[in-house]
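Quick board copy: two proteins, each given as sequence then tokens.
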Amino acid sequence: MLKPINKILVLFLALSALLMICSCGSDSQESVQISSSDNQLFLPIIMYHSVLADDENCNEYVTDADTLKADIQYLRDNGYTAVSLTQIIDYVYNGKPLPEKPVVLTFDDGCYNFLTVVMPILRENNFCATLSVVGSFAQKEKEQAQKQSSLYSYLTFEQIKEISKCGYVEIASHSYNMHSLGKRKGSLKLETESYEEYRSRFLSDVLVNNKLLSDNCSVIPVAYTYPYGFVCEESLELVKACRFQVSLGVEKRANYITSDPECLYCLNRYNRPHGISTEEFMEKVLSP
């Protein structure tokens, strides 16, 4: 049974007070203040999902370790530095300098292979990333108590907690239980719902996920990743009401960051499919 909305907001504000913002990346990386004639910072964001050790089961949303390694090497060779969303927030709100060519790597859904395949690659290359977690996936993984598989398993909250401590991975909310394509598409409002009903449902989902992440992992995310990229006018308003400072969509377009915090919402990302060369993919992603 859902709690009354006033209790939800009180609890959420209390949880928000626990927020600890940590940036990732190399402290030794030379940083410069980015500026241009129109005061816009070009920010490419790449969206990965599952990353397997080999390419046997790869598809549009599943790639392999060699592809990820090639992508990172290409970015390094072309002068790009991976940054966290927290660093982008600091740039917008506080004018904190960023590397000359920033790029953000995101990994959606909280797949178990993020731990077994992705993290060693990030660590080896001194790259940071954002991991978007679906709370119900993590909860069910623990309840199943089965041997985890890199092919289809998700991370447990215990594993997410350990990942959050590494210093180069930040955790984003991918909803608690709205990552589906059933009657409700992602976190969209149903046509049959009133605004108050939708507001209660959305805020309750956010609260549950944030509370699980707070209680089990000692983190509350600063970013909300829209399930499947579905966005409606009401969700745009509620993401801000929940004090998320960033939200991530899935539109394949460039991002231009300014001093206006509004630019941090519905950031565009390029999905990384399998079967496309790094050069071909990056040509699209890195073109302003």
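And the next:
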Amino acid sequence: MKPGSFVKDTISSISLGLALMFGTAGLPHILMRFFTVKDAKEARKSVFYATGLIGYFYILTFVIGFGAIVMLLGNPEFTNADGTLKGGGNMVAVIPAKAIGGDYSLGFISAVAFTTILAVVSGLAISGASAISHDLFVNVCKNGSCVPKLEMKVTKIATICIGIVARLLGIIFEKQNVTFTVGLAFAIAASVNFPILLLCIYWRKLTTRGAVIGGSIGLALMLILVVLSPSIWVQSFGFEKAIFPYNHPASFSMPVTFFLIWLFSITDNSKRVKIDRESFAAQDFRANSGIGASQASNH
């Protein structure tokens, strides 16, 4: 029951917990599901069922973990002579299926895992490509005016580029623990997306300047801390000692992002401030009641 090799200290445990709890609310492939329902009522229903299922699967991690200890630990069929799991730690959720139901069960779980990976990858590819093509290219580079054909072309190019970058990163992090890479995605969402979303909904003094600058610095800080952590600086780059001692930096980067967003918002004297703060009341009413946002809109 003591901490294992993945989470070795209290700070890392708290950071990982914060990332998994708050990062879920900021994952782009989760947020994009709000655009797949026809109205606000269906959006609330979708969130209700989704959070229930997510909570259920989080509970299952305890069952799978302790079940793996009971069924696999010390079993020569699944462990090496030194006690390590055959296939590596990333297989700990798959091998128990073979211990319970044999090859048929193992094949079924492998198929489910592969399908899940495809679903997540497709969601991330769509959200990433749409962010590049619609948010950056159309709204920033083209000032909101762009023909649909050109936007679709940029979307396709962005999807291909995202796939290439993902493959290169996959090769670099080939020997990393899958849990660490998953925790990294959650940590970025918790450190950047979640503070912006939370303050957008509940803090009327938030400004565009605060969200953009605070979120950008928070993202940069998060990535720097991850690169300087033992998992990257030592295991991937081969340096002797890590500059930042923790693998999970969410407990450091998330409070900093909240502070920076607050700081750049309250010190904002631009012309945009009045528009941002006067729009909060209407946005707050729409978010809580659904009135005015009940119908689908073009994107």
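Board note added afterward: Residues 172 and 236 are 7 Å apart (CA to CA).
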